[in-house]
Design a protein that fits this description.
Layout (H helix, E strand, L loop, with lengths): L54 H37 L3 E3 L20 E8 L24 E9 L6 E5 L5 E4 L3 E4 L2 H19 L5 E6 H10 L3 E5 L15 E5 L1 H9 L8 H21 L6 H14 E4 L4 H9 L9 E5 L2 E7 L2 E6 L1 H12 L3 H7 L12
Helix pairs in contact: 1-6, 1-7, 3-4, 3-6, 4-5, 8-9
C-alpha cells in the first residue's frame, strides 16, 4: 500500500533516487507523471540534454568531439603543409635568370595596366651546342654576347581571370628597331644583349609591359618532349623533302623529342617559310597542352608538382617569378581548355629586303589593334571583331 498524504489523502510521491534521469522512470514506476518532482530539476528549455545527465557521459561526448575536431585540424594543416612543400620543392628546381628586364627608366617603358592579365615572353634559343644553356642541368650561360640568337619568340597573354589565353608568334626575321643597335631582325636582340635587350625590344615593338620571361634551348625542348612521353601531331598532306628538309607522310605521327625538334625547326620545305614554321611551333605547343590537360596534370597538385619538376630541368625563368608565383601560375590554368587558347602570328605585312637580308614586315594598323587589345585584356573582343586574323587552324603543314 502506498502511504497517503495526510492532507489530500492521495498516495504520496516517492523521492527519485539521485542520479536517475527524469525521462527514464525507475523500474516499477510506470505511469509516473512528467514534470518536476521533489528533488528533481526542470528540463532545459532548448530541448538539450538535461542537467541531470550523468557527468561521465557528458565528459565522454566532449572528448569525442574534441578528438574529432583535432583530427580534422591535423588533416587540413598537414595537407596544406604537404602542398606547400611540394610547391616549394619543385618550383625551386627551376633555374632563375638574373637581370632579365630592361634597365631603362620606368618613364621609358610601357606602363603596366592593373587588372589586365599577365604577359609572358617565351624564347627558344638557337643553341647548336650539345651543352645545355637552360634548366637545372645548364653548364653554359643562357647568354653570351654573339654566341646564339633566339630562334623562337612568342608573346603569351593570360586573361586576368585565367579563362582564356592568347599566344602570338613573332617571326624571328621581323624587322624592328633594337635599342642601341638601329634596325635589325628581331632575333638579333638576344644575341647582342641577352634577355634584357630582347624584352626591351618586344616592349618597344608592342607597347605591352612584359611581366615574366621563360627561356628554353633545343636540348631542353627535346628533353621536355621525351619527359611527357612524346606528342601526337597530324600532318594533313604528304610533304616532300627539299634539301636537308625531311619528308613527311600524311597522317598522325607520334613524335619523340628528336622528331619533334625536326618538325618545329624546319622552314625550307614549307611554302610560307618562317611563317609556316611558327605555325608548326604553335601546333606542337597545342599538342603538348592537350596531352598535359588530358592527363589531369593541372588539376592534381601532386602531378602539377611533377610537371614543374620536369619543366625546371629544362626551362629557365626570370628571377622575379617566385616559387609561389610559379605554382599559382600553373594552378591558375587548371580550368583552361584547348578551345580557350588562341594561337596566331603577329599581323603579317609582307616580305621585304633590307640590304642583302630577307625580312618580315608587320602590318602596322592591325598589329597596333592587337597590341592594344592585349595591353587592356580585351582579346575576346578583338577576335570577335577580327575574324580573319592569322589564327592557327587544324590544317597545319
Amino acid at each position: 500500500m502506498e502511504p497517503e498524504d495526510e492532507q489530500s489523502g492521495e498516495p504520496a510521491q516517492r523521492p527519485v533516487p539521485p542520479g536517475l534521469s527524469l525521462f527514464e522512470p525507475a523500474a516499477g514506476a510506470s505511469g509516473a507523471e512528467e514534470g518536476p518532482v521533489d528533488g528533481g530539476e526542470e528540463p532545459p528549455p532548448d530541448g538539450g540534454p538535461p542537467d541531470g545527465e550523468p557527468p561521465a557521459r557528458r565528459r565522454r561526448t566532449r572528448r569525442v568531439l574534441l578528438w574529432t575536431l583535432s583530427a580534422l585540424l591535423v588533416l587540413v594543416v598537414g595537407g596544406c603543409g604537404a602542398l606547400w612543400w611540394t610547391a616549394e620543392h619543385y618550383a625551386s628546381s627551376v633555374r632563375r635568370i638574373p637581370d632579365a628586364f630592361p634597365t631603362a627608366p620606368e618613364s621609358a617603358q610601357p606602363k603596366p595596366v592593373p587588372g589586365s592579365g599577365l604577359n609572358l615572353l617565351l624564347v627558344g634559343l638557337d643553341a647548336r651546342s650539345d651543352t645545355p644553356t637552360t634548366g637545372s642541368a645548364a653548364k653554359a650561360p643562357a647568354w653570351q654576347a654573339g654566341a646564339a640568337r633566339s630562334d623562337t619568340m612568342m608573346l603569351l597573354h593570360l586573361s586576368d581571370d585565367r579563362s582564356s589565353a592568347t599566344l602570338v608568334s613573332l617571326p624571328r626575321d621581323t624587322w624592328v628597331p633594337i635599342p642601341g643597335h638601329g634596325e635589325a631582325k628581331l632575333n638579333a636582340a638576344y644575341s647582342w644583349g641577352g634577355p634584357a635587350l630582347m624584352t626591351e625590344t618586344v616592349q618597344n615593338l608592342t607597347g605591352i609591359r612584359i611581366d615574366h620571361l621563360a627561356v628554353i634551348d633545343w636540348n631542353g625542348f627535346r628533353a621536355l618532349t621525351d619527359a611527357i612521353g612524346g606528342v601526337d601531331i597530324t600532318v594533313p598532306r604528304t610533304i616532300e623533302g627539299v634539301g636537308e628538309a625531311r619528308a613527311w607522310e600524311a597522317g598522325t605521327h607520334h613524335m619523340d623529342g628528336a622528331t619533334a625538334l625536326l618538325y618545329v625547326r624546319e622552314r625550307y620545305g614549307l611554302p610560307g617559310g618562317d611563317l609556316d614554321r611558327t605555325k608548326r611551333q604553335q601546333n606542337f605547343l597545342r599538342a603538348l597542352m592537350l596531352k598535359v590537360m588530358d592527363s589531369g596534370t593541372l588539376t592534381s597538385p601532386s602531378r602539377l608538382g611533377g610537371l614543374l619538376g620536369t619543366v625546371g630541368e629544362v626551362v629557365s625563368v626570370d628571377d622575379r617569378l617566385s616559387n609561389t608565383d610559379l605554382f599559382q601560375l600553373a594552378w591558375g590554368l587548371r580550368s583552361l581548355r584547348a578551345d580557350d587558347v588562341r594561337f596566331m602570328n603577329a599581323p603579317f605585312g609582307g616580305f621585304a629586303t633590307r640590304g642583302e637580308q630577307s625580312v618580315v614586315l608587320l602590318a602596322d594598323r592591325p598589329a597596333a589593334q592587337l597590341w592594344e587589345a592585349i595591353r587592356n585584356d580585351r582579346t575576346d573582343q578583338y577576335f570577335q571583331e577580327h575574324k580573319a586574323g592569322d589564327t592557327l587552324g587544324t590544317d597545319v603543314d
